[in-house]
Amino acid sequence: MRAKLPVETGFVTRDGVKIHYEVYGSGPETLLFIPPWSIVHSRIYKPQLPYFSERYRCITWDGRGNGKSDRPADVAAYSLDHYVDDALAVMDATGTASAGLVGLSFGGMIALCLAAHWPERVKAAVLAGTAASIGPGQPGISHEQFLGPQNTVEGWHKYNRDYWMKSYADFAEFFVSNIFPEKHSTKQIEDGVSYAADTDAATLARTVEARAIPPRFDVGKKMYERIKCPLLVLHGTGDRIQLYGRGKAVADLTGAELVTFENGGHNPLGRLPARSNILMSEFFERHLPNAVKRPDPAKRKAAGPKKALYLSSPIGLGHGRRDIAIARELRKLHPGLQIDWLAQDPVTRLLATNDERIHPLSARLASESKHIEEESGEHDLNAFQAIRRMDEVLVANFMTFQDAVDAERYDLVIADEAWEVDHYWHEHPDLKRAKLAWLSDFVGFVPMPAGGAREEFLSADYNAEMIEHIESHPGVRDRSIFVGGLQDIVQRSFGRDLPEMRDWIPRHFDFSGYVMGEHPQSWGSREALRERLGYRRDEQVCIVTVGGSSVGLPLIRRILQSYPMVRRRLPALRMIVVAGPRIDPLSLVVPAGVEVRAFVPDLDRHLAACDLALVQGGLTTCMELTAAGTPFLYFPLRNHFEQNVHVAHRLEQYGAGRRMDYEAATPDAIAEAMVAELARPAAFKPVEADGAIRAARMLAELI
What we know:
Elements: E1 8-14, E2 17-24, E3 30-34, H1 49-52, E4 57-61, H2 80-93, E5 99-104, H3 106-117, E6 122-128, H4 143-147, H5 161-179, H6 186-196, H7 201-209, H8 221-225, E7 231-236, H9 244-254, E8 257-261, H10 268-271, H11 273-287, E9 307-312, H12 318-333, E10 338-342, H13 347-353, E11 357-358, H14 368-375, H15 383-388, H16 391-407, E12 412-416, H17 419-427, E13 435-440, H18 452-472, E14 479-482, H19 501-508, E15 510-511, H20 526-533, E16 540-545, H21 553-569, E17 573-578, E18 594-597, H22 603-609, E19 612-615, H23 619-628, E20 632-634, H24 641-654, E21 658-659, H25 667-679, H26 691-700
Parallel strand pairs: 3-4, 3-5, 5-6, 6-7, 7-8, 9-10, 9-12, 10-11, 12-13, 13-14, 14-15, 16-17, 16-19, 17-18, 19-20, 20-21
Antiparallel strand pairs: 1-2, 2-4
Helix pairs in contact: 2-3, 5-6, 12-26, 16-17, 20-22, 21-25, 22-23, 23-24
């Protein structure tokens, strides 16, 4: 899912070639994001556009030869002249007299040409991993090697026209892997390879052949010397595409600011987006007169009453309920504590009903729940891959979070599975502005069998990065809280050559025990609770609930098909379906006798009072049922590692719930299981009631 959509799209046509452009956001200054070589397209700037378009009008386009732009058949159509003229044409089409420029790789070369020969159009420019006509080049990327015969196809010998025509996909994999030589760059490489697949070998070959066509303007040493606008050069010492010496030569000749990424690869904007975005922001604020400035952490308000910023995962409502419970206990220990919540729908609805203070920047957050819904199939969600593919959303939301902590002084940040905060503060510990407490009810991604060897490798790589982060920067997290106990940790390793989870987690986490909004024991007897909720003694009540997203819609529909079969055997059965905030009750075909409610604010009480529940397999709901001693059937989503491994293991420890396989769960099978569970007494192990208190005490020590 895109973190932000363009406000305008269009085409500009030059010499019969259509160039597709997009405009994001608005602001008194405009930034022009110039596409690199046509092996990729404008989506390469996805870590930048959502953030910068909050303060600037941002324009980008697909370079000719890729994306939604045309792929002319004439080699001459790919000359440097045409790429520069495309940039000018897009500026004209969007009414942009002048702008700040951002150029990655070949886009940097285009920016240099514009700054030198059309200085009135360029106010300032950022060049990342820039191409140039000066400085040392990559020996493997030469015109002679590209056109000449090759005796081998190993290494840079793949940079060859004939090889591309035979094995373009292999070349693309090789080239993009060299763009990102840094460890743990699997997602960036996957993205780059997918962008490369949006063009073809013949088109890309024309772009290389056209480099022999001399431009109509000078690109020698004098071009660099005539550039007068401010420049910022971002370059990695490990760049294998445009060697570091080339970026340094550009900086030396133009007087540019040079920021060096030690051991960094070719694309710092994609591999180190948080650091790059802040460097670029600070640069443009210095040199664009009307730039809307981001918060300056040095100018944060002086210390006053104690304040905490709470981030609660929006994937379902369970995190929100437990976090509100922890916040209540924390205020008892620190009565004057102000808690601001940086949260998104549906958590913000829950917070509003509990009179919690929602940070105004919450409105800027990209929707993680919507992304998860778009990733899901029929009762199927590969949660690990969905989180990987949420990278654009997470970068955008981290930048919003960083703006919040740079603008206001907080004593504590409480991050309940706020992956982006934990990741980027570990990548850049100097961005940390407050003590950090991390909460999670699972640790470690687990590959699903359907993902095969590839997913096994990827999940281990992500786990290895997390382990390296924590062990290399132990001071980033001031406290790590595992929401559960040692017995709730699955007995398996983090991956090949990685430690066992039960060995590693206790060394780096404290255990709070399970945390829920309210423990059922505080509501009195089940009989009294049923009476308060309006349930009759002579009826059996079954509640169906699938959480706060629309992923559970297929499950609800199948359960509804089973109801008439159960009703024939249990005439006193009353079924209540809680559709949740993101499923339209009118979209359901409801049998006679079934009640459908869009939202039940005290759902946990109803789950404690009912005779049977049918749920999806999320941890919070299953543990609420376990604590209440309510029999339940749970249907883990296919390929959802947390529900199928971590949650299932935890429920086994409590002897709770009957696990159902959605594939085999026909309406008949569901009906049989419902009847069986209603006839079987529940004998679950008790769930601790003081988890919120214990977690709050751990947090209170940090304030």
